Amino acid sequence: MNLTDLQRSLLDYRRNLYRPTPMQTVVDWAEASLRLTQRQTEHPGPFSTSVRPYTREPMECWKDPTVYEVTLCWGSQTSKTTTLMAGLAWLIATEPSPALWLMPTESLARSFSKSRWLPMLEDSPAMLECYPAEADKITNLEQNFTRSTLTFVGSNSPANLASRPVRVLIADEVDKFAEATAREADALDLAEQRLKSFSSSKAFMTSTPTVVEGRIWQRFLRGDQRRYYLPCPHCREYIKLEWRQVTWDDAKAEDGKHDLAKIRASAHYVCQLCQGKITDSHKVAALRHGQWRPENPNAMPGVRSYHLSSLYSPDRKCTWGYLAVSFLEAKASMAGL
Question: Helix, strand or coil for residue 209?
Fold first, then answer.
């Protein structure tokens, strides 16, 4: 009997219902199974969440049956895309399902798949086991693994979303998606319609926020609005990082301009509760003990939303000093802040 794509997807899904769910957490699986090489990062080696522990809870949403929508409203240098890559790899290996990764443009989707996604799979033996015998079934945009499928689509090609039933949708950088026109519907809306064939569908939205009216901020507001709280190294109370608490010595050079070197060296965070000085090393240590706390009790059940600014990133480009200098340079530029 010849099955349609929809019938085949539903049949595979029903078969998976009877497979035992692995006891291993998503994070444990990813750290044991995935590897990142120099083709993807300047810190090659086994995948790890130790430096960015705030990624752990969102990753477990892939396995949590009570969660069906996740929004990551995160700043730059916070590893939001890597977090999604690890979760999707877990899905392909342990809960095979048809998935769709939607990006702003098709060319960007093709480039991302070729330069970041596929290299991670090729460098991870656990993922190579999911590869089909026929090499031509894995292309940059269409990937047919042994028990699951993954399609990359650009929001500027909404026609490619038709007739693609999927259980999992990843919408990456949604604030950069093409807007709906008189001839083409909104790509994100069309993509979400593809989830209706699966009762246990999941949607992951992510983007660096742009404006209040942007898609990612509106998605964040409709979720449970989780924020990451860190313990102050001085008063031990949990606080969420806010830009207004970053301060520095207003040093001036001989020409009257900001002495950026001194500003970078003196910048630090001031605890809003005890006024204690929090250094970059304090921040990195506190990240390990951070907690996600929901702030919207009126959110619909199963709709998670996470907000994380670049203040939390342990990246060297997100130190207090680097951010202070970037702020002053942006403030003095023609475009302003």
Answer: coil
pLDDT digit string, tens, across residues 64-90: 999 999 999 999 889 999 999 999 999
Spatial neighbors of 214 by CB under 8 A, at least 6 apart, are 174, 175, 207
> Domain limits at 279?
234-288+320-332
Of 193, 222, 251, the last residue of a domain is 222
What is the structure's pLDDT at 32? 95
Decide the pairing of beta strands 291-294 and 226-231: antiparallel
Domain end among 199, 222, 245:
222
User: What are 284-327's pLDDT values in tens digits?
Assistant: 999 999 999 999 999 999 999 999 999 999 999 999 999 999 99
Q: How far apart are the first and last CA of the chain?
A: 62
What CA–CA distance (Å, rounded) separates 245 from 272?
7
Q: What whole-number distance in Å separates Cα of residue 37 and Cα of residue 33?
A: 13
Beta bridge partners of 149: 144
195 and 253 part of one domain: no
Could you give the CA distance from residue 143 to residue 149 in angstroms, rounded to a whole number?
A: 6
Query: Looking at the structure, do residues 155 and 269 belong to the same domain, yes or no?
Result: no
Separation between Cα atoms, residue 38 and residue 119, nearest integer Å = 10
**Rounded mean pLDDT, 142-155:** 94
